[in-house]
Amino acid sequence: MKGTFATLLLLCCSLPLMAQPFKPVNKSASSEAQRLLQYLYQVDDTHILSGQHSYSNDLNRYYNRAQEIAGKYPAIWGTDFIWHGEKDPGQDVVAEAIRKHKEGAIITLMWHAGRPTDKPPFGWKESIQAELTDQEWKDLTTPGTALYKTWEKQADQVATYLKQLQDAQVPVLWRPYHEMNGVWFWWGDKKGPDGFVKLWKMMYDRYVNHHKLNNLIWVWNANAPRDIPKDEAYSYIDFYPGSEYVDVLATDVYHSDYEQKDYQELLDVAGGKVIALGEVGTLPNRHILEAQPKWAWFMVWSNWLETHNKPEQVKEVYELPMTLTRDEIDLKK
């Protein structure tokens, strides 16, 4: 039965782009990016793509481990441009992303960016999870300032890697500055038009209009709202840059906190655009996926595959008729 569902989905991917409610926000999106977004809309309501993140210092460990447990490779391979050691991992990420694309995987990339006030390597607590003062934030988001120019250099460095993927015809689910509605990253908890929204639009303009990066599907990736003191994540809408800058709305859910009200809130903000589980800790079970059918994909966060999921749980989710693995997708059709 699962094979029949997958075959029908592949046939659906031959439908014209007009069959989907939203085209890529980048009007110059590459044909590969267009097909990827079209595919995500075809998945909508009927299937969910399996995904697995691996740390950038060991790019295959947990992706391969998922295959060992489930018997099939995840449909989505993900990693990070994080730079908190002596070596910039960017070139290794590019090489592995190209390999995974050739093997048939969908690529999703993120960036735990170092604070622009610091120099690499960027410490986790000292930089990535540090804070900017109100004045530093204002300078960062004001074109022409020294801090803005530093940010440009940081963003441009990552753009060079994404450009290599564009040259290799690899479309990317690009989800920078994630969990922006939380209080734990320097770009987080900045509400309003001069807050995170301005930073997102800066990157979008720099990458789309300046660098002509047309292989990106723009994934705005928040965190599931919560009211834990000193560890809050606030309502999605206060950080959303608008439908003209976002292709996919994703959220991160850990510890099985798949709240139906949060799912509905994200659907309301999305207004018909694709939604996804950008990161998960404990995998959603069959009952959750049946109650929340609009998720286009899930991606388990690295070692949480083993620390917060029993092998039988992983295998069960991968064997659901709605779950698609790498061997069941074909974006070239």
Would you kindly provide a written description of the structure presented here, covering whatever features stand out?
- By secondary structure, the chain is of the alpha/beta class.
- The chain has twelve helices and ten strands.
- The protein has helices at 2-12, 31-43, 61-70, 90-103, 124-128, 134-140, 146-167, 196-210, 260-270, 286-291, 304-307, 311-318, and strands spanning 48-49, 51-53, 76-80, 106-111, 172-176, 216-223, 248-253, 274-280, 295-300, 323-324.
- The strands form two sheets. The protein has an eight-stranded parallel β-sheet. It has a two-stranded parallel ribbon with strand order 1-10.
- Helix 4 (90-103) runs parallel beside helix 7 (146-167).
List keywords for this structure.
two-stranded parallel ribbon; 333 residues; alpha/beta
Summarize the structure.
By secondary structure, the chain is an alpha/beta fold.
Topology, element by element:
Layout: H1 2-12, H2 31-43, E1 48-49, E2 51-53, H3 61-70, E3 76-80, H4 90-103, E4 106-111, H5 124-128, H6 134-140, H7 146-167, E5 172-176, H8 196-210, E6 216-223, E7 248-253, H9 260-270, E8 274-280, H10 286-291, E9 295-300, H11 304-307, H12 311-318, E10 323-324
Helix pairs in contact: 4-7
